[in-house]
Amino acid sequence: MTPEMPTDTEPVIVGVDGTTASRGAARWAAAVAKRFGAPLEIVNGRHATGRPLTDAAAALLAAAVTAQRESAETMLKSVEEEIRGDFGSLNITTILSDEPTDVLLTERSRHARFVVLGSEDVTPAAALMIGSTTLAVSAHSTCPVIAWRGSNAAPTDQPVVLGVDYEHTGANAFKAAFEFADRFGLALNAVHAWSEFRPPVDAITPYGVDWDALEALRWQSLLNVLDPWTELYPNVVVTLFVETESAGKALMHHVQDAQLVVVGNRGRNALAGALLGSTSLNLLHHCPVPVMLCHNAPEGQ
């Protein structure tokens, strides 16, 4: 079933920590919020800290937390002023919290349109240690999470790339990709990866497999799964691609000339994703443009 349309009161949320990447993400998120007619929330939470083992360590930790909060207040004000300077009419709020950043963003994602983060590369080692805010939020967020990277301070006129694994992609990913393309007047490239082995032309195959017919079936299945969305968003120009390689490689080839790649997340935990080499983790590690991760809707929704 198609997910409900988010309302214009649902904010675009951006997590900031004062880094260049987070400031870039904030500007990009502001441009997206303006085009969607949504408010912008600029959010900062505390860094995760361990439990102090001694009273002296506790005192030092308390002093560090106080200093961090004061620094965060100054940083949030600076980011807000920068955004207001370029987006004066945008409804902007700032939130400073003592909750860990990943917990805060996950909680606020329940009533958000998007969560945007200036993303560091997410390596398999980071996934194994659950050491990335981007990874933690992506794994538990209710709304789509956008890991911003690159140098574009606002969306461009380049196409959106949507990774399609038929129904496994999930309605949320289709909805988010088509709506983003529609709002910005962009083309959409739908990419399906087919990594099955195909023997050489002169090879003898068992059971008389008709590889051409099988590939044609892939194309037809792709058209079928996209039909409801092209009808819902008739202004979005869609180009279809069926690639005979892994999903990760296929998407990386297509994002070179794109501005955003959208993929569905099947809800694996971070550890499973790292061990299985998931497409999402591969994109978070290597993709040069923003990556939007969309969880599948629960059954029956």
Automatic annotation (TrEMBL):
Superkingdom, taxonomy of origin: Bacteria
Pfam families xrefs: Usp
InterPro entries found in the cross-reference section: Rossmann-like_a/b/a_fold, Universal_stress_UspA, UspA
Annotated SUPFAM superfamilies: Adenine nucleotide alpha hydrolases-like (SSF52402)
UspA domain mapped to chain residues: 11-147, 159-294
Protein family (similarity comment): Belongs to the universal stress protein A family.
Name of the protein: Universal stress protein
Organism: Mycolicibacterium gadium
